[in-house]
């Protein structure tokens, strides 16, 4: 978390930065999330010169939330290899219990994030997962900063990318054909409107069971699931004395995490069929 605290300090001190394009928090964060798998390249402005650690490269951020201060993109490196990139905006809210609660409420309404974990006994920083992408709330004396951070896996691919592993590998490549996050939401809504759909939910999934219309089960991930956002449909049915199973899905989150989830559900269906 030292990286996130460093990003915040850089953002606060960079008073000479060019003003970024202002957007409301939800709209701006959605754009940041869309660019996260590309390590915010499209949102990265000129490099910021300063006495920063040699392991951190800092750039101006091109978009700014309506109530925030300056924003930066910070790339953290180790032994010459980048392992994380964050987009952080300062002064998104006042540093108080009410300020933290208001910011968490807005992010819950926008992205469904409900679980925040403190990283110290003092309470801040707070972190939350959106699939394999990390949200953070950090604080200075008077204000809060909001950040989005992505990490790289052992092969240098961005965790949380909907294209991670859609390339030749030692075995068969995982095929990645992602949807947009809005398409996932629309698909889930469509299944929920079918006759007989009965809602259910647990800590990782929200879905419907349907004994009237197929599929039998449909569910979407919550933000704390590695594959989020993703949707899975399960069906088990009998024709002419033979039991058939079907598992399908779509995703806008991490491709590998989605295929791992899909395989888990396939094994579950197979056990039911047997």
Describe this structure in words.
With 274 residues, this protein is of the alpha+beta class. A hairpin with an 8-residue loop joins β13 and β14. The protein is globular, with a radius of gyration of 21 Å. The chain contains 5 helices and 15 strands. It starts with a helix and ends with a helix. An 8-stranded antiparallel beta sheet has the order 2-3-5-6-10-9-8-7, with helices on both faces. A 5-stranded antiparallel beta sheet has the order 11-12-13-14-15, sandwiched between helices. Mean pLDDT is 87; it is low at 1-18.
Mean pLDDT, rounded to whole units? 87
Helicity range: 25-40%
Largest sheet, in brief, is:
8 strands, antiparallel
Shape: globular
Low-confidence stretches: 1-18
**What Rg is obtained from the alpha carbons, in whole angstroms?**
21 Å
User: Distance N terminus to C terminus?
Assistant: 47 Å
Query: Please, how many helices?
Result: 5
Overall SS class: alpha+beta
Beta-strand level of the residues, as a percent range?
35-45%
The H/E string reads HEHEEEEEHEEEEHEEEEEH
Strand order of the largest sheet: 2-3-5-6-10-9-8-7
- The overall strand count is 15
Short summary of the structure?
This protein is an alpha+beta fold and 274 residues long. It has helices at residues 2-13, 25-35, 97-111, 181-192, 255-273, and strands at residues 21-23, 44-47, 56-61, 63-65, 71-78, 81-94, 117-118, 126-130, 133-139, 143-151, 197-201, 205-210, 217-221, 230-239, 242-251.
């Amino acid at each position: 978390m030292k990286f996130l605290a460093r990003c915040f300090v850089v953002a606060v001190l960079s008073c000479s930065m060019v003003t970024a394009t202002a957007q409301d928090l939800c709209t701006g964060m959605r754009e940041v999330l869309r660019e996260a798998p590309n390590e915010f390249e499209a949102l990265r402005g000129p490099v910021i010169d300063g006495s920063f650690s040699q392991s951190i490269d800092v750039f101006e951020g091109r978009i700014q939330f309506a109530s925030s201060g300056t924003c930066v993109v910070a790339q953290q490196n180790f032994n010459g290899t980048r392992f994380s990139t964050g987009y952080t905006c300062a002064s998104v809210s006042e540093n108080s219990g009410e300020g933290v609660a208001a910011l968490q409420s807005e992010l819950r309404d926008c992205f469904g994030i409900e679980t925040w974990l403190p990283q110290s006994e003092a309470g801040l920083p707070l972190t939350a997962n959106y699939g394999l992408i990390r949200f953070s709330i950090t604080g200075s004396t008077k204000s809060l900063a909001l950040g989005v951070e992505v990490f790289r896996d052992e092969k240098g691919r961005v965790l949380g990318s909907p294209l991670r592993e859609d390339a030749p590998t030692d075995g068969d490549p995982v095929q990645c054909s992602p949807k947009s996050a809005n398409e996932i939401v629309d698909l889930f809504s469509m299944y929920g409107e079918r006759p007989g759909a009965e809602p259910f939910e647990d800590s990782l999934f929200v879905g419907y069971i349907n004994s009237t219309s197929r599929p039998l089960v449909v569910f979407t991930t919550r933000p704390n699931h590695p594959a989020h956002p993703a949707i899975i449909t399960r069906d088990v049915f009998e024709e002419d004395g033979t039991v058939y199973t079907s598992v399908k899905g779509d995703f806008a989150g991490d491709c590998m995490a989605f295929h791992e989830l899909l395989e888990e559900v396939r094994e579950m269906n197979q056990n039911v069929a047997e």
